[in-house]
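We were asked to recover a plausible sequence for a given structure. The inputs and outputs are reproduced exactly as logged, with field labels preserved.

PROBLEM: sequence recovery
POSITIONS: 247
GIVEN STRUCTURE:
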């Protein structure tokens, strides 16, 4: 007696986007309010199913970036983050998500589209702490996305993706402080940044007034890998204990 012919199990594929930017010096993540079940009315990451079987995953990520938020991807840093496919993560069936991390400076107020009722920038800490509860396993995805950004700031030029075309070293330091969630010594930071040849280069457009002495302007340099790396400070025992109490 022969076994029945095998057929592949039905699996649906989605893309989800962890979109990060700085707003008023705070690291923020873009969330949408779901307009339909499951989890109707709950905050979630922008994303959705593939349009058709022939759609490339990266194309779907760019499309969702535009459809869900009315943001264009032309000047947004976009990279694949991870794949999430645990059984039971979606009540609609076996759904696998290919999550992406997107970063850009000074992103505007979002406009919800397609199946989202609303969209808003939310402080990342509110998501990490659980103060804002997300649909599906999206809190885990946000946590992974922020940790990816924090880690890459140490060894890559990713921090410049949070800045405009021209920026000061003080503004670059603000990126590191917002993403890492810790204050940095200004002189030490300046010395370390200047020690990485090709990380940032002086701009030709002079200086920017900051209320005191005009600050020199820089732009992203050609180097994408930082050596020596900018190592993230280890939280003090007091800071770590306070953070764990809030979790």
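RECOVERED SEQUENCE:
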């Amino acid at each position: 007696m022969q076994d029945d012919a095998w057929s592949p199990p039905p699996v649906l594929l989605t893309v989800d986007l962890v979109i990060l930017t700085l707003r008023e010096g705070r690291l923020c993540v873009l969330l949408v309010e779901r307009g339909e079940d499951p989890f109707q009315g709950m905050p979630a990451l922008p994303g959705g199913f593939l349009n058709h079987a022939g759609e490339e995953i990266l194309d779907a990520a760019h499309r969702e970036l535009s459809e869900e938020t009315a943001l264009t991807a032309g000047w947004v840093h976009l990279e694949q983050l991870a794949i999430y496919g645990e059984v039971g993560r979606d009540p609609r069936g076996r759904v696998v998500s290919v999550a992406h991390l997107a970063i850009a400076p000074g992103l505007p107020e979002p406009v919800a589209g397609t199946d989202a009722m609303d969209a808003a920038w939310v402080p990342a800490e509110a998501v990490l702490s659980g103060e804002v509860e997300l649909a599906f396993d999206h809190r885990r995805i946000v946590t992974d996305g922020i940790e990816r950004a924090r880690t890459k700031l140490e060894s890559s030029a990713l921090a410049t993706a949070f800045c405009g075309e021209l920026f000061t070293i003080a503004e670059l330091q603000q990126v590191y402080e917002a993403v890492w969630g810790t204050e940095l010594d200004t002189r030490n930071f300046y010395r370390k940044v200047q020690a990485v040849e090709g990380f940032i280069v002086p701009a030709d457009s002079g200086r920017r007034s900051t209320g005191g002495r005009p600050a020199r302007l820089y732009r992203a340099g050609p180097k994408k890998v930082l050596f020596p790396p900018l190592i993230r400070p280890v939280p003090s025992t007091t800071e770590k204990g306070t953070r764990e109490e809030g979790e």
